[in-house]
Amino acid sequence: MPIATPQADQPTSSLTAKEVSYDTVDGKWVTYRAGGKPGRRAIRQPGEPGWVDTFDRIPIIDFANVDHPDIEVRKRLAQELADAAENCGFWYAANTPVSKEFAEQTFAALEEFFALPLGEKRKCSWVLTPGCRGYESFEEVAENEGNKSDSTLRESFVMGDDLTDPVQWQGAVPEGVKTQNIWPAALPRYKQALDDYYSKLLPFARSILHLFALALGLDETALDNVHKFPMCALRALHYPPQEPDESSPGFLAHADFSSFTMVLQGEKYGSGLEVLNLNGHWVPAPAIAGTTFTCNVGDYLQHLSDGRFKSTVHRVVNRSGLERYSLPFFYSPDPSAVLKPVVDPSKGRQTEVTEFEDAPIGEMFVRRLLAGVEIFIPDRLAAIDTDVECIHTWPPSHNDDCLEVDAFVKDVNTSLALSS
């Protein structure tokens, strides 16, 4: 039975893109970013006005039959997935194509990369690529998110779809396509490890997309038309330990701009992921035994489902006392896709028109990546000891009216579109 919906969350004009607190305000509100905008949710206790029946744990779904030859078996799995996506927006995916040994090898490569000297990691900085791929330091995360550098709580490395990489694409590379990924020359096995992992998850993600189509009462390939050449990204994350009473998040409270996300947390690294329920309470989503993924609906799938599947707010606070590593894989539609929701004719449309229907999502995707970024890239490039030539000129400010931003977004979006 669908869970009741509480009073609507409040969009908050007083909260900026670089909000000081994404946690609680006066003990009454949780603040976050979702749909590219700041908002807040009231913290409600049992018996208080607005309290609703909502999730207090993350459901576990067995995906052993994700590619079962009998479509009726797949439909039953699709219904189980739909229940989780409607009522929680999160689920654990057990019995996946990733073995324990394979996961351990991948995490070993992550540990090795993040242990490199900062100078080596910065040679594959994200400022050197057209799609913001590569390494982002603790300092850069703090600056980009408006935190003080001494409270920075993660570093990351991003790779994703790249037609210039023969591992991903063996055909002719269209003219004008730029290399999307950048790799550490000092650690060649790192690329191999992430390439192998990416290649393993891509077909699994496609199978999950088919389940969502079945859950919407469609042919299982019905959503393929906007996921022909999906924007995919793998983000390797490293979080240092936090004190038990430390409230600063390793990842600010947010909802994902993806169709869906699959996170391998790494059982030995403790926990830290938390999910916001409808009463404003943080529900732990710890790593569980085996190579079980923690998965969630993103903004694009919420829109395609006409609001039926929920893009749920979440954050990371690493109070485990351990170094934490995780591997989110983001699966998103084509950059050229203009998204229209799937509407039940008997009910009519349930949601309002959004920006996803006005223009190809590739441009909005890039603008969201750049939201709140204020670092001056030429200064950052000057500090990087690398022979790699910067492929674009970064603008010194990032507002929607800035022509330099528009030019940069156009350059990145053109590269994305050519890749499709």
UniProtKB/TrEMBL annotation:
<dbReference type="Pfam" id="PF03171">
    <property type="entry name" value="2OG-FeII_Oxy"/>
</dbReference>
<dbReference type="InterPro" id="IPR050231">
    <property type="entry name" value="Iron_ascorbate_oxido_reductase"/>
</dbReference>
<dbReference type="InterPro" id="IPR005123">
    <property type="entry name" value="Oxoglu/Fe-dep_dioxygenase_dom"/>
</dbReference>
<feature type="domain" description="Fe2OG dioxygenase">
    <location>
        <begin position="228"/>
        <end position="333"/>
    </location>
</feature>
<keyword id="KW-0560">Oxidoreductase</keyword>
<keyword id="KW-0408">Iron</keyword>
<comment type="similarity">
    <text>Belongs to the iron/ascorbate-dependent oxidoreductase family.</text>
</comment>
<dbReference type="GO" id="GO:0046872">
    <property type="term" value="F:metal ion binding"/>
</dbReference>
<dbReference type="GO" id="GO:0016491">
    <property type="term" value="F:oxidoreductase activity"/>
</dbReference>
<dbReference type="InterPro" id="IPR026992">
    <property type="entry name" value="DIOX_N"/>
</dbReference>
<dbReference type="Pfam" id="PF14226">
    <property type="entry name" value="DIOX_N"/>
</dbReference>
<dbReference type="InterPro" id="IPR044861">
    <property type="entry name" value="IPNS-like_FE2OG_OXY"/>
</dbReference>
<dbReference type="InterPro" id="IPR027443">
    <property type="entry name" value="IPNS-like_sf"/>
</dbReference>
<keyword id="KW-0479">Metal-binding</keyword>
<protein>
    <recommendedName>
        <fullName>Fe2OG dioxygenase domain-containing protein</fullName>
    </recommendedName>
</protein>
